[in-house]
Amino acid sequence: MKWKGTKAEKAQAEAFMRRALALARQGMGHTSPNPMVGCVVVQNGVVVAEGYHERVGGYHAERNALTHCEKDLSDADLYVTLEPCCHYGKTPPCTEIIIERGIGRVFVGSLDVNPKVAGRGVKILEAAGIEVVTGILETKCRKLNEVFYHYMTMRTPFVVSKYAMTLDGKIACASGDAKWVSGEASRAQVQRMRKQYSGIMVGIGTVMADDPMLNCRIEAGVDPVRIVCDSNLHIPLASRIVQTAGDIPVIVACTETAAASAKATALQAAGVTVLPAGDGTRVDLNILMRLLGRREIDSVLLEGGATLNAAAFEAGVVNKVVAFIAPKLVGGAAAPPPVGGAGIPCMADAIVLTSVETGRCGDDLWVSGYPDGH
Ligand code: AOF
Ligand code: ZN
Predict the structure, then answer these.
(1) What is the pLDDT of residue 373?
(2) How far apart are CA 38 and CA 42, in angstroms?
(3) Binding residues for substrate, per the UniProt record (predicted)?
């Protein structure tokens, strides 16, 4: 329902919702494919209980807040970033405990898109006589769970194309040297992104050039699944990714033909999942995304080079772009840009980003946005 509070009341409600958002973010990297959710319980203007969804399979935010508080919560206000669930999943419905504890008012950030909930959570609370106010900091709450909203409705991973380039639009020198394009602060930010998303994808060119690990070096146990797009299975068995396949999962996407080869068998023996994606001469990225979605990979950080990035934009699988721009120039007609391929012939047909945000990361600039229609 629409809320008729005063300006001051609205500002206060938003302040509590901001606290709930901060709590929700503490679950980052641990809740996939569930959303990040935070909850704050307020009585007489004071926060008396807090909780968040700490990990998939664990209690939801509301239950975490309420079970840890023994106070009488009759008529208290509860702020939650996502509509309370009303289904028996891995845990009992949050609506049940909210009703049991006698909460008087519930402030909801954004509605759930899970078809098991989708507005029914609000209806059940209202039917129990609880006043429900929706849409508090809705945009921020939705954005926090942009992965969840996409994955729950599309069943394919939310793909974030991340790249770092020089001010003259190069991701490496003409020699191939790329260490480092962006500064330390940007690279630290990329480590945080590796924690945030459940998969990380590169092309075979990057494996050949850099022999990367593609792990997350800021926290143990939150590494994304490593995905290599390698149509003809050229990945060396001695590469660091293959050598560590037993520790951090590796998926190598290839063609149907390559998946039937002896190389595929050798990779499987090394612990790699070989995933055929299409019967053409190259990996079909749309098919690959559907297959990754079936494996509950809800998001992919695409750290591609010029070729894979071009293929991803051409296939229309990119949902978000995050570009770091370093204030340096290297020139060179042969130095690669972030997106190669044949390119779009007319500027009028360019992929335009919406909801653009910009900022600074050390001396670098960053720009993020969402390709048209995504
Ligand atoms: C909430 N609060 O903290 C979360 C919610 O598998 P389950 O039982 O954990 O249920 C997952 C679904 O519950 C998820 O898809 C989403 O709809 C909702 N998540 N809801 O009220 C929470 N994590
Ligand atoms: Zn719940």
Answers:
(1) 62
(2) 13
(3) 194, 206, 214, 217, 303
Rg of the chain on CA atoms, in Å: 23
3 carries a ligand binding annotation: no
Catalytic residue among 14, 50, 54, 62: 62
CATH superfamily of 155-371: Dihydrofolate Reductase, subunit A (3.40.430.10)
In the chain (374 residues long), the average pLDDT of successive 10-residue segments reads 81 97 97 97 95 96 94 94 94 95 96 94 96 96 98 98 98 95 96 96 96 92 95 98 97 98 98 96 98 98 97 98 98 98 96 97 98 72
Determine which residue's CA is closest to atom 23 belonging to ligand 1.
Answer: 60
* Global pTM value: 0.94
Q: Annotated catalytic, 62? A: yes
Q: Check the annotation: does 366 bind a ligand.
A: no
What contacts 335, CB < 8 A, 6 or more positions away?
A: 170, 172, 173, 174
Is residue 367 within a helix (H) or strand (E), and if so which, with residue range?
A: strand 364-371
Domain segments of the chain as ranges:
7-148, 155-371
State which of 85, 107, 144, 296 you would mutate to test the pocket of ligand 1, scoring each by most atoms of that ligand within 8 A of its C-beta.
Answer: 85
Ligand 1 center from residue 84 Cα (angstroms):
8
Q: Which atom of ligand 1 is nearest to the CA of 53?
A: 3
Instruction: Please give the pLDDT value at position 2.
Output: 67
Task: Give the whole-angstrom CA distance, residue 244 versus residue 228.
Answer: 14
Give the pLDDT confidence score for residue 299 in this predicted structure.
98
The class of domain 7-148 in CATH terms is: alpha beta
Pick the atom of ligand 1 nearest to 121's CA. 21
